[in-house]
């Protein structure tokens, strides 16, 4: 009987050791996949000091959270992006202050990766009924305000995602590619032929200073230093390279001489 029990114990031990081998082999594949994922897609519409909600689009099914500061524990509001359209609406718990920043986070529930945008709160939009007056002078003022509002809302930029090609300057041109999978990539061409990769597989984040003036912070693959890129959108499919004060300036690109660059999608 003792010999029989010893033999059975040996078989159980052998079976247990053999069963653990496949689980160990799966670990490297899971880690590699998580490391290459950049994060969910996220766009946020303009936010005003009298806004009661924040709206936009994100990767379908993403969890959306609005915070007053980066990584704040409490939320100003939360919602889930539609599983069919990606649209979301977050109801705000309190009134926002003009020129304050709010942090809008999108988290992919499957991969647990997140992406956020910093949004500057704009002054409350003037009500049309409040600007309508009987006097001629006040009517003229109301007309000017209405015209400027229409110009600001003539187009909307949701995300830089896509391929953008520049003008040609001194025989050189550029191509920028923004992707949620491969990050930010920038290439330099001369006479139509690629001569250098300026940025590759960089992680990036977008800070919309205004609906048309954006700051993009990116970190190239293998680098610990972040860099900034400023864009001024003149349409939904065109932007100019500007400085931090939103002024068009001549910028060097690799070996290409400094030039003023305009990119189209």
Helices, strands, pairings?
Blueprint lengths: L1 H18 L1 H16 L5 E3 L8 E6 L4 E5 L9 E4 L6 E5 L9 E7 L6 E7 L7 H4 L4 H17 L9 E5 L5 E8 L3 E8 L2 E16 L4 E7 L7 E9 L2 E5 L8 E3 L2 E4 L2 E3 L1
Parallel strand pairs: 7-11
Antiparallel strand pairs: 1-2, 2-5, 3-4, 3-6, 6-7, 8-9, 8-17, 9-10, 10-11, 11-12, 12-13, 13-14, 14-17, 15-16
Fraction of helical residues: 10-25%
What structural class do you assign from the helix and strand content?
alpha+beta
When the domains are counted, the total is 3
- The H-and-E topology, N to C, reads as HHEEEEEEEHHEEEEEEEEEE
Average of per-residue pLDDT values: 81
Radius of gyration: 26 Å
Strand order of the largest sheet: 8-9-10-11-12-13-14-17
| Major beta-sheet overview | 8 strands, antiparallel, barrel
DSSP helical segment count: 4
Global morphology: globular
Could you tell me the strand content as a percent range? 35-45%
The strand count comes to 17
Low-confidence stretches: 6-37, 146-150
